[in-house]
Structures are given as C-alpha cells and as structure tokens.
Amino acid sequence: MRQYCIQKLGIGEIKEIAAHHTGLNGWQYQPYNKRVGLIGDAAGLVDPLLGEGIYNAVRSGQILAQSIIEGKNDVLATISLFSKGLKEVQKDLLSCYKTSFWFYKIPAIGYATLTLPITRYFLMKGFSRGWTFSKIKTNSYNLSFWKRAIRDIHK
Ligand SMILES: Cc1cc2nc3c(=O)[nH]c(=O)nc-3n(C[C@H](O)[C@H](O)[C@H](O)COP(=O)(O)OP(=O)(O)OC[C@H]3O[C@@H](n4cnc5c(N)ncnc54)[C@H](O)[C@@H]3O)c2cc1C
Predict the structure, then answer these.
(1) Which residue of 41, 54, 93, 114 pairs with 23 in a disulfide if CB–CB is 3.0 to 4.6 A?
(2) Residue 22 in contact with residue 41, Cβ under 8 Å?
(3) Which residues form ligand 1's pocket by a CB distance below 6 Å?
C-alpha cells in the first residue's frame, strides 16, 4: 500500500495507514432477535468477491420492510418471513464466496480471468440488467447469450 501510494499517486510520506473489515459472512446470518433486524453491512451482506454492498443493503432493507408489513405485528411470523426472504441475498453471497476462494488464491490468475473480454461482457451486461452474480453465472450457460457476447465482442 505504501509503495503503491508513493509510486502511483506521488504521495511523499505516509505516516499512518488505517483499515477496517467490511461486513462479510452474511450468508450465515440468521435473524432471531425479536426487537432488531439487521440489514446491509450490519448483517454482513457485502459480497466477498467484488466488495459490493449497496445492492444487498437496499435489497435486505426492502425484504425486512416487506416482512414487517406482511407479519402484521406477529413478531415470530415477521422473523420467519425475513429469514425466508433473505435467502435470495444469502444464496448469492455464498456463490460469491465460493468464487472468491479460488479468485484470491492466485490473484494473478483471478485478475486475468476477471479482465477477459468475455468475463467483462457477462458481468457488465448482467449487472446492468439488474441480475445478481449467481444469476449471471447461471445465465452464462445460455447459448444465445454466448452467441450474442461473441458477436458483440468482435464488433
Ligand atoms: C471505500 C469503500 C468503497 C466501496 N465501494 C463500493 C462500491 O463501489 N459498490 C458497492 O456496491 N459497495 C461499495 N462499498 C460498500 C458499501 O458502501 C456498503 O456495503 C453499503 O454502503 C452498506 O450500506 P449500509 O446502509 O448497510 O451501511 P452504511 O452505508 O455504512 O450506513 C450506515 C449508517 O449508519 C450511521 N450510523 C452508525 N452508527 C450510528 C448511530 N449510533 N446512530 C445513528 N446513525 C449511525 C452511519 O453514519 C451510516 O450513515 C464500499 C465501501 C467502502 C468502505
């Protein structure tokens, strides 16, 4: 980090570097508290592959709000609805976690894979459609999507 700041950013002297963990492991979060529901970073919903947390923060807030409305003042029903609703986000986080495992194991290979035109194409197209990472992974097996990708990359 020090070397990067000096060489790439032209910063002279760095006295102190401070860092903090992002909220991870949210695929294991199990709501149980009767008075508090955690969402976003507080629930550990940051994607461990790319560090994205905004989508999951907003989505988990929507799921909790919907659970409160549908739970109709029944706390246990609300917790149950929230747990079930969160599965959609947690499934995606687990998929990111599994991918991050090999991605960060050998960063040079992970980076090379991420920057391949075909990978970039799928990620950009998928995210801009509002798809989650696991949906992009699933849909990348769709042949018509591949054909379109190859055609677009060669344009
Ligand atoms: C450097 C950096 C870059 C990032 N880049 C991206 C990115 O490119 N894309 C992406 O998707 N995600 C990114 N993230 C992650 C993303 O910012 C977070 O996952 C997301 O903002 C989480 O939203 P949140 O509402 O859960 O928490 P926060 O956005 O942290 O909101 C929590 C709020 O609660 C307030 N608060 C705390 N304690 C109290 C208190 N006691 N009383 C009242 N208020 C309180 C805080 O001030 C804060 O405003 C990045 C994070 C960092 C740190």
Answers:
(1) 41
(2) yes
(3) 40-42, 46, 51-55, 57
Residue type, 58: V
First-to-last C-alpha distance (Å) of the chain: 38
Per residue in 109-119, is it b (16+ CB within 10 Å) or e — as a string?
ebeeeeeeeee
CA distances from 120 to 15, 46, 75, 136, 143 (A): 37, 21, 44, 11, 17
Ligand 1 atom nearest residue 60's Cα: 26
- The Å distance, Cα 111 to ligand 1 centre, comes to 26
Helix (H, G, I), strand (E, B) or coil at 131: coil
| Amino acid type, 23 | G
Report how far ligand 1's centroid is from the alpha carbon of 109 (Å). Answer: 30
As given in the structure block, the two tokens for residue 151 are: 């055609």
Give the mean pLDDT per block of 10 residues along the chain (155 residues): 85 85 90 94 94 94 98 96 96 92 89 87 84 82 64 66
